[in-house]
Amino acid sequence: NMMAQRLLLGFFLGFLGLVVSQDSSCPAPPCSPDCYFHGSCNLTTNKCDCHFGYAGKNCEKRICERATCVYGKCNEDGSCSCDSGYIGAHCDILIGVQPYTAPVCNLDSLCVCDAHGRECTDDSIAPDLFVLEKYLKPYVEWKKFDKCDCAVGDCIDDYGLRKLLRFTVMTYNAGPADLFIGQPGQYTDDALLGDIYSWHVCHNHPHFLPWNVFRLVNDKRRNATGHVARYVHERSKSGSTVIDSTRSSSLAPGKIRKYVDQRQGVQAGWSDWYPDYLDCQWIDITDLEPGDWTLEIEVNPLRKFKERDYDNNLLQYPLTCSPKCVHGACDFGSNCLCDDGWTGEDCNTRYGKGGDVCVPDCGDAHCGESNCPFELCGVCERHSHCKNGKCMCSPRCEGKFCGPDGCGSHCGVCMGENEVCDESAGQCICTPSCAYKDCGFDGCFHVCGTCGEGEACVNYHCIAANATRLA
């Protein structure tokens, strides 16, 4: 029948030499992925050039001194132990000063509720993350991959023509506290958290590994013995960059983006957004049989960080077809795949007479599946994806927060008052504003200075604390 023919598609493509595993001819990166956390790859020498405060072959060794451990103490391993109220790899970020307003919780489940670094006494003060269902909108696409594409071996098993279930994941922080992850490289030598980040050379940014997991679940699939058994097809993403993508609530206390690529997290009332057109924002379903499937998206599956509520972390989305498929099977919620001799939206119309063949009818569609078995209306070119039968330009924004997206629009806008876009790198560059300021927020996530004992910061100047009470 048609379903069997669809499943043979991958086999035939493999036989033709169009689907094979990734080989060794793909160029290897000149530097180790570990280099990029605290350095950059010098393409002339093929060696790692270290950022300030780091040394070693892959810039893995910290050089702790006053300049690199601003408000803290140096440990024997070169790391910093921050003074009360300060965070960051160099202990230079003051909690309670905008935009790091309390409360905020880090990956060690420490929740701070004031500018002095005091812990929250109320256990309900924590982030609360869940996936927003209305943005999911899954659909099926056939896409061709070259052997050296980043996705090969990462989120698809082979190159060639693959069948993908694409979807958008919008993860909302509904809790009263920020989730503060911080600089990815600060965890590389942590015994408990050292395995939570990896550098993705193709995407050119760090990936937070335990952010979410994708699953396809079928409770009606028959096993090898013919019995109905629960089948789970699980695919963990190679990781995500966890940032403030969009302000999802008008009640969110923060109005500008706090957390970006090298300072990760999600503030209260904001969401991390991964749209369907991005690389690996899919499950490879080439070898799966159509039927009664449920798509599951789970955030924080390993409970790596504290939340107010874990019961809402799992989203279950049934992939159903409407109308129901009478003589066929539902193709992962996209459309009906009809048995031989049947056609129509619900597979309930006979076609032709005995011996006649199905004639593909794509209408206005330029890509995607046709009404006939083993027939596609077309496949989109590189840097494009198929949606509703049309080839759409795929924005090339991996690792970018601003600048052109390659599709006539932009990858985002710089929201900070002192930020400008470096379009060549796609990064928002912030210029500190500390002229005529002794203390207070510098406009770039740090402070211009701190006041001494018995002093308070008023209008960016340090004055005697008792002077602030004069009426």
From TrEMBL:
Keywords, sorted A to Z: Disulfide bond, EGF-like domain, Repeat, Signal
Taxonomy, superkingdom: Eukaryota
InterPro entries: EGF (IPR000742), Lysyl_oxidase (IPR001695), Teneurin (IPR051216)
Residues of the signal peptide: 1-21
EGF-like domain boundaries: 27-60
Molecular-function GO terms, alphabetical: copper ion binding; oxidoreductase activity, acting on the CH-NH2 group of donors, oxygen as acceptor
Disulfide bonds: C31-C41, C50-C59
Any Pfam family: Lysyl_oxidase
Protein known as: EGF-like domain-containing protein
UniProt source species: Paramoeba aestuarina
